[in-house]
Structure formats: C-alpha cells, structure tokens
User: What shape does this take?
Amino acid sequence: MIKYPQLKPLVDDWINQFLENKELINSAFNQYGSPINIHFLEPFIQNYHEYLEVLQNHKLDHLVFYARKANKSKCFVKSAATQQFGVDTASFNELNQSLEIGVPSDRLVVTAAVKTEELIQLALEHHVLIIVDNQDELAHIEMLCLKGGHTAQLGVRISGFDWNGQKLYSRFGFDITSALAVVKEIHSNKCFDFKGFHFHLNGYSIDQRVQAILQTLDLSELLAQDGIETEFIDIGGGLLMNYLEDEEEWIAFDDHLKKSVLHKAEPITFMNNGLGYESIDEKLHGCLKTYPYFNRNPKSVFLDGILSQMVKGEQKVSDLLRNQNIQLRMEPGRSLLDQCGITLARVISRKEDSNGDLLVGLEMNRTQLCSSSADFLLDPIYLPNSEGRKPRETSVYFTGAYCLEQDIILKRKITLSVYPEIGDMVCFVNTAGYMMHFYESEAHLFNLSTNLVASKDHTGDFTLEED
Ligand SMILES: *Cc1c(COP(=O)(O)O)cnc(C)c1O
Assistant: This one.
C-alpha cells in the first residue's frame, strides 16, 4: 500500500481536551444531528491580544475590527464587545445584530460590497462609519443624509496601488489616482465627514501592504496641505495564518501532487484532482489553488513584518504612521478565528467504489466545509465510537450528502488508523474561519449545521450551549 502524504494540523489543547468528551458529543449529535460546529472563545481573545501587543510595541494608536463575515456566530461579536475591540460588518443583518449585541457605534464599520438603503439608513442613524466604494454609493448616502438630516461618517476605500511598476487590480474601491479628488469632494460636502482611508488587499505579500500604506500616507500628506485631516488608515484583513505543523509535510504533499498529476505517481486526490495543477502534453501547468496552509509568518508576525519594514531614510512604517498622527486600523477575520472552531460529523455508510477506493459517507455536505480554496488541506481527527478497535490502516475518501458526483468532503485521500464503522466521528479542525459558513447552502432542504459554543465550567469540564 502506498504511503499517502500526511498534513498534520496544528491543534490547540482545548480541542484535544474537548474530544475526550464522547458522551457530550454524542448527546449533541442526538439533539442537533450532524454536522455540528463547536466554537471556543479563549483562542479568539488570545489572537486579539497578540495583535494588540504588536500594535502597542510599535506605540501606534490603533483599532482592531473583527471581520465577522468569516463566521456567522454571534459568540465572537459578543466577545469582541466584551474585550472592547471593533467589528467589521458587511450587511444589514451583520450591522443590526452587532448593534443589538451592544457593540458601540464608534467600534463598528460598514465595509459591505453592496450597501442597501436600509443598511445605509441604519449606519446613518447610529453614526457608524461607512467605507465608500464608488460614486453611486456616495450619491445614495448624500440623498439619505439630506432626507434624514444626518451627517455621514465616511472612510474612502482605495485600490490600484502601484507595486513594482504594476497596478494591483481590485474591483473594489476608488482608484488611487482619483482618491484626492474624491476626498476633496467629500470634504466640501456638508453631509459628509471624511475620517480616513481603507484598503483590503488580496494575496499575502508583506511588501504589497507596505507599498499600499506608503502610497496612502502620501495621499494624507497632500490632503493635510489643504487642511484635510486623515484620522486613520485601515489596512483591511487577509493577515496570514498557519494551519500546519510541519513544513516538510507541506512540501512533500506538493511534490507528490505534481507527480500524480503528471501520472508519475499514484493519485492522492479524488479522480486525481490537481487542485489547480494540470497536465497538458505531459507538462505541468497551473499552480496550487488552495490557501497557503503552511507559512512561517502568521498573524502577529505578519503584522510586525509590515510595521517594522524600513522605508524612506531609515524609518519604520510604524514611525511614519506615528509621525503623521494617524491611527492604524485593521480588520482581521480568519486570523482572529485561528483555533476557535471545529466541525464534527458522523459516519453513516461505507462502500468500495469501482476503482477500489473506500468511500466513507458522512452526514454532512461539502458546502459545510468549503471556502474559495480548492481543498481544505488538513488531516481530520478520526474518532472511533467504540473502544478497543484493532488498528488497521485504511485509506479513504469522505463523501457528502448532496447528489453531486463532486460532493467529496475532502479531495485528499486520508489514511485512518482503524477500519471505519458507522457511528464513528470525524473532527475537522480549525474550521471557524470561512470553512463552516461562508458557502453553506440548504440544497435538498437540508438543515444548516448547528453552531454550539463550548465553555469550561468551574471544574474544568466542558459544557455546550447554542450560539
Ligand atoms: C474579507 C474582508 C476582511 C477579512 O479578511 P480575512 O482574510 O478574513 O482577514 C476584512 N476587510 C474586508 C474589507 C474584507 O472584505
């Protein structure tokens, strides 16, 4: 039997401790069905404090917003409110719920790609900062300000930064070349109150963020000459996170996948899916279209990398921000949710397909573990539901409940240490950021998965409650 490459995930202690509570988990399955998402707030608070420490070390005025689109659960919004950091909202419901939970207006921001009238109205009534994206939006906001006698607090989203002579394309925001004119127009309009700049970059390059900050600082310097103050620069989210224990496993997996795609090694993915690689005339094309699950500069290291970069005559990026008296804002989603959630599902069937592969049916569908990435590249934790099972290495694919040939939960073949049985459980770790909710659908009228919040009582035992 070939050795399928492993990708061992980083697993926070609470997860291992929680998984020892088989009875609690089984009773949750009996009550709520499968799959179940379990959330835990301690790592969320820890992740926030890691960012805070970097921002404080750089002596920056700062405000962190949790980008709540990465997870639907209310528990994280409540926690942000208690810990006194902010929440980035992307829809009417997200904003409305955050207000109801009690997040103060000055720690909320609306970055929604589409701003409906009711969303703008709600933001105006509560003096919540709106990040504007285009002229039509600006006109809509102005109209509602005039109608209701409001003043809009505005940030201006910009894009199109120059990077090594290339423009960084984004469909969002005003092009940087028009930004000065837009801010001057906002400044001269009594309905508006210009507060600062915002951007959010795709990709995970420290240098691109640095260049974007520098070009935004140039803008605010020019505006200052006209007496227009920039209170903050918001660098958005997309701060890297690391999911994996071992870089060598990550490299070995990538090597093996490429060989498989070129038919020089046995497939390690369902139907030899290249996850972005393809073979054309026996040559390798394309690139791995997954999140960079392993990386060495996660979270606060990434942020520190941006702020510590030396620029313009031996100054750090953070020095420039401080010298211009500008508050640094950021909107991490995924990285604040690092180690905050797991997804549990039950095994309901097993069968061998005509290729000789063992397909293990889970009571879930692929939209319940799905992001824009080509696959979720973490080995799950397998939990046999009976004691004393004989070890028996078995390599399987996990399949889902949608009547699609493609409803494969993980495209990778996974090696289990036992032969799977009905009622066993599979735990997918670190799924809170995007994986569990972002693309979840109700096709076939399946219920959405249940979201539970785990806490430890005074004896250290876990309890569960509905989100
Ligand atoms: C998605 C998004 C974020 C959060 O991005 P993460 O990758 O989850 O950190 C922040 N700001 C804006 C404007 C976004 O669209």
The chain has a mean pLDDT of 96. The chain is about 30% helix and 25% strand. The first strand starts at residue 36 and ends at 39.
